[in-house]
Amino acid sequence: MDTLHLFIDTNVFLSFYAFTNDDVEQLRKLTKLIQKKKLVLYITEQVRDEFYRNREQKIAESLGAFRKKEIGKTFPRYMADYPEADAFKLAAADMEKARDALATRATKDAKEKLLAADTLFAEILAVAGPIKVSDEIVVRANRRRIRGNPPGKENSFGDQINWECLLEAVPDGTDLNVVSKDGDYASKLDDAIRPFLADEWENRKSGSIKLHAEIKPFLNSSFPTIKLAIDVEKQIAVDRLIQSGSFSTTHEAIAELQLYLDAITWDDADAILVAGIANNQIAWIGTDYDVATFYRALIEKFETKLLDERIAELKALFKTDPFEEYAATVQSDPFADDIDPFADNEAPPF
Does 202 share its domain with 234? Predict the structure, then answer.
């Protein structure tokens, strides 16, 4: 897959402090995708400043709404004599205490900028690097506002600044994805990008532009095999092994995948096992200790999903060399000198 290009509006980042369908795991995934160069995120100084300027208000609003949430304590009078009624009252009181404790802790962490969204936004800023808002961009954005051109509202021109930053910083020929929750970028007829912006992007940048309302659906559709942040690195390692074009790349990919063995799914394993037979840069070194050990572990983990014929073929291909197995054992346990490398073999392989 080609590298995707993305701009996220400030309101989307701020929504992680509110009641939203997105969750902070999406920000973790973003950071990993940027670090692994699967995604380029364009973030402007304007977005950064808007985020920190409005952060406190957003947190205060969500905390206020959370504190005011009604916890039902009443029940019909005819239930009052049941023993469960007392348990209900105690549970309601415990819920109130838990709510107050949650709000108190969140308030403390918010003051110290220790909320998960705080940390992750700072990480995203660090890996993406904000686009500088020059005086020339401000002039162009203000002219855009005066002329009434989207995106943005009449009484501010933050969106116009962001748009002019994108026009200047994004390379020509780029297809851009925009994630925004308000209507500044959206068509009046549907949920697509405003035709004016689509036409301008095509004319100025020779690319297309697509609008998304939330990060999670965008990431799920663009990276369907990646559910958690850890899946980013795992999937890259899986792809690297499957597409390996050299013995050294195979060894490097195996070393990475050993770290994610517990996280490998059946779909991952099936693709890896197929590649193990089809890709000669894997198959030809199938008896190398690290390769054989990894593949044997996969075979064992998913044995119930494999046909007996396939298991036999894989085990014949990925069998450990007794000398290498012995060397690896001694290296991990220097007192294992009395181990016989041919204990499970009828005779030495020579």
Answer: no
